[in-house]
Specification:
The chain is an all-alpha fold. It is 57% helix and 0% strand.
Length: 94
């Protein structure tokens, strides 16, 4: 039975959907990329699909309206003076 090949843009979108679905599950992009390459998908098509997926995910991410405020607090340094060698020697004999 003859099955026509999907158009390349549809094929890339299917791979991009695969990336988006599994990235949301917590898989790394490298693990997903190599899984597809090991399943004999072309490396170039996998790279294009990963790029498309990241672009689509970035466009749907919420926009930051306000810049975060970074506070820097310094903690005063506590210096503990150790007794000098001579005071240690004096303590031994007293």
């Amino acid at each position: 039975m003859y099955r026509p090949k999907p158009r390349e843009s549809d094929y890339i979108q299917q791979l991009a959907d695969y990336f988006k679905k599994n990235l949301s599950k917590g898989y790394t992009s490298d693990a997903l990329k190599w899984a597809l390459i090991n399943q004999e998908h072309s490396r170039a098509e996998v790279d294009r699909a990963l790029k498309l997926a990241t672009e689509q995910m970035a466009s749907s991410a919420p926009k930051m309206i306000e810049k975060p405020v970074i506070k820097i607090e310094t903690i005063p340094e506590v210096i503990i003076e150790e007794p000098s060698l001579w005071s240690k020697i004096k303590n031994w004999f007293s």
